[in-house]
Design goal:
With 142 residues, this protein is mainly α. The protein is built from six helices and two strands, in the order ββαααααα.
Length: 142
């Protein structure tokens, strides 16, 4: 197996795994609300109308954010149940932000927990690897 042009050992792959988990966890916890808004906004305009319609029905909301004239068009095409119950529906962008914020915090926390657990395991293995058993017979290996 090759890692970036170098032969990989099992230890190198474990270290790489810790670095990746730690980096991804930190980035999940570090992303702020405005970056989440940018990502949601960019992905909304790439989606097909069918996907938007499915999301609006499953989240029971209409449109993304009330920032452009496009919102009026999205709201007019919306088929969510909330539209028939009340004159105004909650915007999907707010629901997506709440959901993504919770998910990123959970993912980041779980990832950090396992990253630090792996780091602790590596440290303990290195610390106690060559320690002799005090109950063993000292002349057994001679």
């Amino acid at each position: 197996m090759v890692c970036g042009g170098f032969a990989c050992s099992k230890n190198a792959l474990c270290a790489l795994n810790v670095v990746y988990m730690f980096g991804i966890s930190c980035s999940c916890l570090a992303i702020n609300r405005s970056k989440q808004t940018d990502v949601i906004n960019a992905s909304w305009w790439v989606m097909s109308n069918k996907t938007r319609d499915e999301l609006e029905r499953s989240f029971d909301c209409c449109g993304l954010f009330n920032l452009t004239h496009q919102y009026q068009q999205d709201y007019a095409l919306c088929t969510a149940i909330c539209k028939s119950r009340s004159p105004t529906c909650q915007m999907c962008g707010e629901k997506f932000l709440k959901h993504s914020d919770e998910a990123l915090k959970i993912l980041g926390g779980v990832g950090l927990f396992f990253s630090f657990t792996e780091i602790l395991g590596v440290w303990l293995a290195m610390r106690f690897r060559n320690q002799k058993d005090p109950r063993a017979n000292p002349s057994a290996f001679l």
